[in-house]
Amino acid sequence: MSIVTCKDLTLGYETGAVASNINFSIDSGDYLCIVGENGSGKSTLMKTLLGLTSPLSGEILFEDGLKKNEIGYLPQQTLVQKDFPASIFEVVISGCQNRKGIRPFYNKEEKSLAMQNIKKLGIDEFIGTCYRDLSGGQQQRVLLARALCATQKVLILDEPVSGLDPLVTNEMYQLISDLNKDGITIIMVSHDINAAVTYANKILHIGHKIFFGTKEDYVHSKIGRRFLEQD
């Protein structure tokens, strides 16, 4: 059953549209990769799904009981964020902010959830290390654990392996794949077309032409073949 459906979306800002005629649906347990040219609107779509910006036209339907605040988000990091002077636990448990609401302190259940996700992502051995002293790959694991504190349903990942070396990139892709196998729906923006067709079951290609379908159909489509040949 679909948990997110987008109908006739036009994405953009006050300065104008960046993408239009976008239609797709996501079922529970899907692994959707969003690919396309630079500047085609991939990150704008992420922000729109998260409610950080509104579509210029069209609609987004959250179905099967899914709420916007039940979506975990791993954004691209800025240099300032990479130098954030906080403990791993402080960063991870901040993902429970929506659960905490107006309470001044995190409760026992939220602290336990943070520790569970720290262990799940294999970063418990660094628990006493400051976030800014971690490697890029370790920081991404921390942020993924943080996103998991916000949801057990849907994760939105914006270029989660950007700037990582090949070995750490493969490890991150495997972690994300394992989370998907555990039942978490993945929506990932990626410039890595080979990884997209390796791990995803559905592809949304945004650009001069829009494609949405299975990865098998994408691989055999004209636009898919062109992008795979370029990579």
Account of the 3D structure:
The protein has 231 residues and is an alpha/beta fold. The two termini are 33 Å apart. The protein is built from ten helices and nine strands. Helix 5 crosses helix 6 (136-150). It has a six-stranded mixed sheet, sandwiched between helices. The longest helix has 16 residues, at 166-181. The protein has helices spanning 42-49, 79-82, 88-93, 97-100, 108-120, 136-150, 166-181, 193-199, 215-220, 222-230, and strands spanning 2-13, 16-27, 31-36, 57-62, 71-74, 154-158, 185-189, 202-206, 211-214. 38% of the residues lie in helices and 26% in strands.
Biggest beta sheet attributes: 6 strands, mixed
Count helical runs: 10
Structural class by sheet pairing and helices: alpha/beta
Mean pLDDT: 90
Could you state the order of secondary-structure elements as H and E? EEEHEEHHHHHEHEHEEHH
Distance between the termini: 33 Å
Question: What topology emerges from the helices and strands here?
Answer:
Elements: E1 2-13, E2 16-27, E3 31-36, H1 42-49, E4 57-62, E5 71-74, H2 79-82, H3 88-93, H4 97-100, H5 108-120, H6 136-150, E6 154-158, H7 166-181, E7 185-189, H8 193-199, E8 202-206, E9 211-214, H9 215-220, H10 222-230
Parallel strand pairs: 3-7, 3-8, 5-6, 6-7
Antiparallel strand pairs: 1-2, 1-4, 8-9
